[in-house]
Amino acid sequence: MDSCQARHQGRHHCVPSSWRNLRQCWMCPKENIMFNAASFLENRELYEGYGLSAASELKLDFPTLKKNRDAYIEWLNGIYGGMIANNSMTLIKGWAKFVDNHTVEVDGKDRYTADHILIAVGSRPDKGGFEGDEYCIDSDGFFALEDLPKKVIVYGGGYIGTELGQILHALGTKVIQVVRSEILRIADDDIREQLYKLMDLSGYEYRKKTTIVKVEKTDSGLRVHLSDGTIEEDVDECIVATGRPANVEGLGLENTDIELTKKGHIKVDEFNVTTVPNVYAVGDVTGAAELTPVAIKTGRTLVERLFNNRPDLRMDHDLIPTVIFSHPPIGMIGLTESQAKEKYGEENIATYKSTYVNMFYSLIQDREKKPKNMIKYIVNKQEDEKIVGLHLIGKDCDEMLQGAAIAIKMGATKKDFDRTVAIHPTGSEELVLADPYV
Ligand SMILES: Cc1cc2nc3c(=O)[nH]c(=O)nc-3n(C[C@H](O)[C@H](O)[C@H](O)COP(=O)(O)OP(=O)(O)OC[C@H]3O[C@@H](n4cnc5c(N)ncnc54)[C@H](O)[C@@H]3O)c2cc1C
Ligand SMILES: NC(=O)c1ccc[n+]([C@@H]2O[C@H](COP(=O)([O-])OP(=O)(O)OC[C@H]3O[C@@H](n4cnc5c(N)ncnc54)[C@H](O)[C@@H]3O)[C@@H](O)[C@H]2O)c1
């Protein structure tokens, strides 16, 4: 929890410039390192084609990966700590609880008050809610693993379940992802179908429309009972990733007039003010898109408004680009085809789609085994084919989206993309070659 001191009020540029470098949470880089490790290994089968025979002997030393990853995160945290110290901020370490609308108590001892109080306590992993969920781990437990498990059940079809399942699979674990309905329901239907094809191609196992009924501990690991009647034996870890509720328990909100939404998030208005004046909330705890850049940008926007004389400034939640770091990654911005049809009417929506093989896979001899990227544009015919959604899946799509997102945020049409000359030979060139208008 951060509290802003009143002494900043009215001063211009009181946001330290080094804050602008604050751009990551610890979970994102931690998972990104695991994504990269998995990317090295998943390409093992390509080495031979590239004449890299020694590389096919590549072996994972998991404890070394974990040690180096954790050291990197510690180094990052040190940098952030330094930024706080160097900017004359006082950091009080401890668990915060409201005792009234404007007073916060830390670790049940010291009390603090301020003209402005910002709540940014994030979210926490859901437990699962089935018999034996105490034997399961969550994403924090995944990062604490000391060695690579042999067999894992991943429960949940969202970002975390899909990312962790895919990382473990690429590292060599036998993974079964169990999902209540579909994997990545938030994705566009065509992209999800392509994901399933790519998962099938890589031998990734998933069970759709299935839930976990019960988990038991046995001498040889976990026994997991699934709703389709099957039982998985000798499971080393069962990772639950069924969402992240707001972290409001123990925050003492009952001592305040701060209200929650029906879904249990802190209720805020468009300026991120809670139901108590001068108490603000940003990030996961508000139910905004649960993404690091969203939390950070909302915080910066609020600070600019309060202390930099920009009274009308508010966070813009429209067209937020996001990437799911599956293998391969999925990038998306804006509406899916079905959302766009619902919003603008079926007759006003057109789509452009392209599938292609990234040159990286060109030396795979069997055409059927070449993973295909897919790009899909959703455009509004009423507005000169303005792009209202862009969806990508495949190698390098994580890096391809950001530039396109700028253009789309500026209101680009499909023709604007078509007019742009391609950069050859890259995967990104498909963005301007996909089903071109001219
Ligand atoms: C495994 C995983 C991977 C992710 N990967 C990505 C990614 O690749 N890209 C991306 O954009 N987003 C990613 N996210 C989402 C991202 O981490 C969150 O959206 C982001 O961290 C939200 O920021 P926040 O400030 O709201 O909360 P947090 O970053 O969770 O920070 C909340 C802080 O408040 C502290 N806190 C809680 N309660 C109290 C209290 N009572 N007193 C004092 N302190 C308290 C917590 O300990 C924590 O330090 C990932 C999330 C997870 C779980
Ligand atoms: N790459 C990234 O940017 C990244 C990575 C990780 C997490 N995140 C953020 O963190 C958030 C939380 O991730 P998450 O994967 O925990 O949540 P999520 O909301 O993405 O997915 C939760 C999944 O669990 C399922 N589910 C919910 N309740 C269930 C139940 N009772 N039984 C069975 N299944 C159930 C949902 O259908 C969904 O498939 C994400 O929404 C995302 O915004 C982002």
Task: Explain what you see.
- It is built from 10 helices and 18 strands.
- Strands 14-15-18-17-16 form a 5-stranded antiparallel β-sheet, with helices on both faces. Strands 8-7-6-12 form a 4-stranded parallel β-sheet.
- It starts with a strand and ends in a 5-residue tail after the last helix.
- Helix 1 (27-42) runs antiparallel to helix 2.
- It has helices at residues 27-42, 62-86, 139-144, 159-171, 189-201, 292-307, 337-344, 397-409, 414-419, 430-433, and strands at 2-4, 96-100, 103-106, 110-113, 116-119, 151-155, 174-178, 205-207, 212-218, 221-226, 231-235, 237-240, 279-281, 322-324, 330-334, 349-356, 373-380, 386-393.
- The longest helix has 25 residues, at 62-86.
- It has 438 residues and is of the alpha+beta class.
- Helix 5 (189-201) links the parallel strand 7 and strand 8 (205-207).
- The radius of gyration is 24 Å and the shape is globular.
- Helices cover 27% and strands 21% of the residues.
- Nicotinamide-adenine-dinucleotide is lined by residues 129, 156-161, 163, 179-181, 211, 241-244, 290-291, 322-325.
- One of its GO terms (biological process) is cell redox homeostasis.
- Residues 320-433 form the Pyridine nucleotide-disulphide oxidoreductase dimerisation domain.
Write the layout of secondary structure elements.
Elements: E1 2-4, H1 27-42, H2 62-86, E2 96-100, E3 103-106, E4 110-113, E5 116-119, H3 139-144, E6 151-155, H4 159-171, E7 174-178, H5 189-201, E8 205-207, E9 212-218, E10 221-226, E11 231-235, E12 237-240, E13 279-281, H6 292-307, E14 322-324, E15 330-334, H7 337-344, E16 349-356, E17 373-380, E18 386-393, H8 397-409, H9 414-419, H10 430-433
Organism: Euplotes crassus
Domain FAD/NAD(P)-binding: 67-299
Cofactor: FAD
